[in-house]
Amino acid sequence: MNAQEIPVSNIKKQIADYKNDIRGPYYRIKWFCKNGTIRAPKDPCPDSIGGGIQHASYKEEVIKLGKEHHIFFGEILAHTNPTEFWDQKNNHSRLKQYQIGKYLSSVDNGWILRKGQYYRGAVQSEDEETWGVDFYKWLLKTDTNLDAHYFLIRQSLRDIPHDGDNNIAQAMRSQSKIIADEFPEFMDARIKIHGKPDKTDIQLVTNFRNKYENKLSPELKKSFTKLNATLAKFYEPVDVATLQKKLNRIKTGDSLKKKVASFLKLYKDTDAVQVSVPQIATILYEIRKNITTVTDSNDRLLTLDLSNELESILLKKTQEWKPDTVKELMQKVYTLSHTAAATGLIELWEWEAVHNDLQKYSTKDELSIASLNDFLYTTRSIVEWSAAMGKANYEEIVDIYTTFEPKAYGFIDDRIRSTIALDLGETVSTLGSFIAVKSSMSNAVMNINNQSSVRGLNPGYALGTLVVVEGSPENVEVDTKNIYIFQKPPSDLKPVAGIMTVSEGNLVSHVQLLARNLGIPNAALSNENLKALLSYDGQRIFYAVSDKGNVILKPENEMTLIEVALFSKTERNKNKITVPVDEIRLDQINILNMANVNANDSGKLCGPKAANLGQLKSMFPEQVVEGLVIPFGIFRKHMDQKMPDGIKSYWEFLNDIFKEADRMRVANTPEKEIEVYQLAKLDILKEAIKKMPLEQSFITELENEFQKVFNGAIGTIPVFLRSDTNMEDLKEFTGAGLNLTLFNILSKDKIIEGIKNVWASPYTERSFKWRQQYLLNPENVFPSILIIPSVDVAYSGVMITKGINVGNEEDLTVAFSRGAGGAVDGQSAETHLISKNTSRLLSPARQSDYLRLPVTGGTSKQITTFEQPILNPKNIQNIRTLAQTIRDTLPAKTQSDYKGAYDVELGFKNDTLWLFQIRPFVENKRAKSSDYLTSITPKIDDTQKIKLTSKL
């Protein structure tokens, strides 16, 4: 997208104007000639220049919107350049906008074409279809597009006209939504059609219309007639002969064609669904796996259309499959998971990573509770991966559209509902409910349905106001006393009482580590769960997550006396800790070579990042970069300078803030007022530090050390500037991600400016609030700075030397994303549980953008796809070896009695492993050992056997 800020208010006005304009976004009808010229409506393109086609031209402001902001309204495909429409350099934004436009038109009475849809001659359907066929012939020529964009291409086929096709399923949902918006009594029926569609919907709608016939307006009656016709069309019996005709048009790909022909010969619409649905899933998978054996691009288009039609049949059939036993339910889950792979919701390699275990479990006659839970964990993950595929493809452009057209937010939900993910989620929830009963592992989340989709990530408990955020979380102003439910965790979360997220991001992001460290209850839930909890938004609730992951969410007035006692002042104060400053050395006012510091210097000369990386440098000299350390003493010396007003020094100004806060507490000033006062003063200090003059002797020393250690002059080698304070990696407080890291800074001026910005970062609102809430002496923060040369890694991430949520103390939890800074900022990362001999995929990456570090400085945004895993077997073995070396040698090298796990940041460049940070992995022992949390943790006999012939 163009970097210029999108003029939201202007676009909103344009949309309103176009809705009431008989020409919508169009200007007038013109001739568009093959040679690129445009002619008046009564001046056709002559045959001598190749002829042309006639359709509407765009209003000038529509053209301007596309040129300046890459926003395209009312797109007419005919005469559009295929390469520009595919829009690869903008992550296919233009194609996706066309799809969103189609969706908005269906749910909002034409949207910007509310009146313009009747502008005769504006769009010629024959020309649009001809263009669509030509577009797909061009697009499908290369195997790469099919491998990388299978999901997107199949989805686009439902929207781009090319063979008389239309999206009946979307029409069904859109028409029911329009009726419910106009006639609220229809809402329950609409929810049924959206959530659990089946053949009975035809009678449901008929009965409803008959019941309310006298209350319906003429327009609503027309809408019901249209919906009934759509439902009848959607559920009409399968015409195998029509499918056979389409197959006969395919000329190449003999092997795949024979398999499809064999399937069609055997398929009968009357077959039992437990037979027919797996058959369809299998042939869909064969099509996906072997589509590139079809050599002709037109044949590929026909094959993909056939695949979409078969998927539509499966979506209807699977709603009729009502398993009676646990075994049949598991077989249905397996089949629908297989379909997810077959239709592009998960990648082929992801399916290969899990399907053997799933198949093994689903064919047994008896399983232990532990094995059932393992099957549930994996299949619930597949549901999440599937939903995340839709979000990964469309979320960026939907978020942009939502700023000026809120209805666009429903697009992703509509897409996911049109896939097998809907019924897969329902079926997995049914299995989860059965297992929960058998293992006494149940949630108590208000009174919502499908509670087995809710699973705890971090133990803890909280009392606060529930805030349900359905849209983007990035601009939400959070309050420490609230409990938040987000679609995805914000990248820069301030302290909150508790969180739940639909997209958990990854287990080792800074947000997740802070939550785990500080005992903030944290859970994952489904999108349906979030919607169900919207009705409780604004209520005071109690929220708890046990160590085993079961979740309680209930109104404050239903709390037990034990739960009420958890929030006494004495109890809550136990969570605060003191930052040690007794050994800090502020007399060290020279820049240090990182190779000369080690773990013993942490909290004395510098923070733990530099101290521990210096330690790693001595242990892994070839895998750790050189580095410079600006110690605490240099910061402290600069703080003795006078503030811009010339009255107090920076240090005096800082300490006076906390003295005044203490005085206000003695005077019983409300804590909120004290916080407002402190934040206002700290903001003044922060901005003053950013402009603070640096001593010339320090700058000269920096230049000399830069040349000496990095073998290049300052300004010639891009570097990272990492804040490294004494308040990080304490025994009870991690501080992960609270302060500033600057990526790939090249110029001398920006490095100088960056040093001051990093020094100022502990005084930001977010950093201060976390410290204030959990530290007894938050004023005693001292920042040092670690300067290291950039390594332009292909992928990077975090390793925790233990299993988190799954696995055990001997395992490794590893999360990686492409590019630099992977996994720490909450990206949807590729996560593995690595044991001594095996590697288990916990989640694949679903982050489409990533950062690379050019030698010219700054960052370069890149786009990726998901058809290949990030980590290869060699990487995984290197990670195992590294973890074992750290466990064996680090405690001895540091003379430490630390027995816990480590949190390691690392990356790979040309398959070479680079180490960037190591710190203790800090968990909240209070949350883990809380008597209350122990009391709500179910005692599960994992060895208990369950007969899979058991009735549901």
Automatic annotation (TrEMBL):
Similarity field: Belongs to the PEP-utilizing enzyme family.
Keywords, sorted A to Z: ATP-binding, Kinase, Magnesium, Metal-binding, Nucleotide-binding, Transferase
Gene3D superfamilies attached to this UniProt entry: ATP-grasp fold, A domain, ATP-grasp fold, B domain
Organism: Aquimarina addita
Cofactor(s) it depends on: Mg(2+)
Function description: Catalyzes the phosphorylation of pyruvate to phosphoenolpyruvate.
Span of domain Pyruvate phosphate dikinase AMP/ATP-binding: 605-930
The enzyme's E.C. designation: 2.7.9.2
The reaction(s) this protein catalyses: pyruvate + ATP + H2O = phosphoenolpyruvate + AMP + phosphate + 2 H(+)
Tree of life domain: Bacteria
InterPro entries in the cross-refs: ATP_grasp_subdomain_1, PEP_synth, PPDK_AMP/ATP-bd
Biological or metabolic pathway of the protein: Carbohydrate biosynthesis; gluconeogenesis
Name the UniProt record assigns to this protein: Phosphoenolpyruvate synthase
Coiled coil: none
